Amino acid sequence: MEANSGLFSKRLPLISAGIFLGLGLGGFVDGIVLHQILQWHHMLSNVRPLTTDSNLDLNMVWDGLFHALDWVLTVTGVVLLWRAGGSKDVVWSSQTFGGSLLMGAGLFNVVEGIIDHQILGIHHVKPGTHQLAWDLGFLFLGALLVFIGWMMLQKGNSQLTVDS
After folding, report:
1. CA–CA distance, 44 with 76 (Å, rounded to integer)
2. Quick one: which of 57, 58, 73, 91 is 20 to 30 A from 40 by CA?
3. Would residue 93 be called left, alpha or beta, if left means φ above 0 and alpha means ψ between -120 and 50 degrees?
4. What is the SS3 assignment for 76-134?
5. Burial class of 148 by CB neighbour count within 10 A (0 to 12, 13 to 18, 19+)
6. Which distant-in-sequence residues (6+ apart) come within 8 Å of 141 by Cβ?
7. pLDDT interval class at 112 (50, 70, 90)
8. Residue 78: pLDDT above 70?
9. Residues 6+ apart with CB under 8 A from 145
10. Whole-number pLDDT of residue 43
11. How far is CA 62 from CA 2, 16, 142, 144, in A?
12. 20 sits in which H/E element
């Protein structure tokens, strides 16, 4: 047990970097694909529909603030990754890093889906017919990514324990 907790602490900087990068990159995928390319929704499109120029302007500003947050999360992940790279104690593993990225991206979907789609109702993944199904699918995808990422971390942990 003690060996595993020591191993975890040596992986934690890489896990933290991966989660922050996953959060930021997951947000960018959402913003670029759903907001800009498909134009299914914007940050406030359920409360301020795109029926007037002022509502369109307001949604664009909030989309920009959303992307600014994604940028901060991504830069934080890069800084954490850089710091981890400078530490001789950090155990490097593609399994650990990839699992952490998936967990971060999945956490983005789950948190954003619960807060923005369900609690605040400021937008939905694809408004209109079957919007609840789209919202639940978004949450399910997020939970699936978290689960797969967690499993990758566990597999990476067992591989490192065997190799030690």
Report:
1. 26
2. 73
3. beta
4. HHHHHHHHHHCCCCCCCCHHHHHHHHHHHHHHHHHHHHHHHHHHCCCCCCCCCCCHHHH
5. middle
6. 106, 109
7. very high
8. yes
9. 102, 103, 105, 106, 109
10. 96
11. 47, 27, 23, 28
12. helix 2-29
Contact at 8 Å (CB) between 87 and 8? no
Amino acid at 11: R
Per-residue pLDDT, 9: 85
Q: What is the pLDDT of residue 8?
A: 76
What mean pLDDT do residues 127-132 have?
A: 95
C-alpha 109/C-alpha 30 separation (Å) is: 9
User: What CA dihedral angle connects 128, 135, 48 and 36, to 10 degrees?
Assistant: -90
Q: What is the pLDDT of residues 8-22, one digit of tens each?
A: 789 999 999 999 999
What's the CA gap between 161 and 4, in Å, rounded? 7
* Whole-structure pTM value: 0.90
Joined tokens for residue 123: 């937008």
pLDDT band for position 4 (cuts 50, 70, 90): low
